[in-house]
Amino acid sequence: MPLHLLCIGLGNPGSEYLHTRHNVGFRVIDTLAAQLGCTLRRSTRHHAMTARCTTDDARTLLLAQPLTFMNASGLAFTSLTRQYHPEMIIICSDDLDLPIGTLRWTRGGSSGGHRGLQSIIDAGGKDTLRLRIGIGTNRTTNGHRIPAEDFVLQQFSSTELATLAPAIVRATAAILLLAHHGFDAAQQFANTRPETPS
Questions:
Q1: Which of 13, 152, 134 is nearest to 73 (CA)?
Q2: Which CATH number covers residue 88?
Q3: pTM to 2 decimals?
């Protein structure tokens, strides 16, 4: 059966990184796998945790979390794309230039300094679709900036998690919308921030 969609969530392996800002891509994959009733399993060959899932209308998705550290994510990308030749590829990643919980689709472009994206670009994935999840700014209340490499390895506060959790669910919905109805529908959905109750 042909692979309709490969979705790679970026993050760092290991329990010490599990709840950090840099691992929201992993959170999306975990949530999507649970929604589709799939189990992620270690694939040494592909340097990743992977799960092959089928939607109700027989769309086949491969979910992946690279087991290398962030700056070597391209290893999994290369291995998976060479074997499966997916029709579409999505990379889910954190973005500190977006407010927490904001979703943005982009198609190709630069890495913006994100080492995981840069690794994938270097591996030939420059034109992939990307779903960026805002993790908040690294600017403090007094106007100073926390170094990005330190900020992305911080954990979220309970208040931030309350904002992030529904965004992760919206991200999985956007991915499924892409699989079923194409990029334009998924982009419109994800790029529209839900209204907050007054």
A1: 13
A2: 3.40.50.1470
A3: 0.92
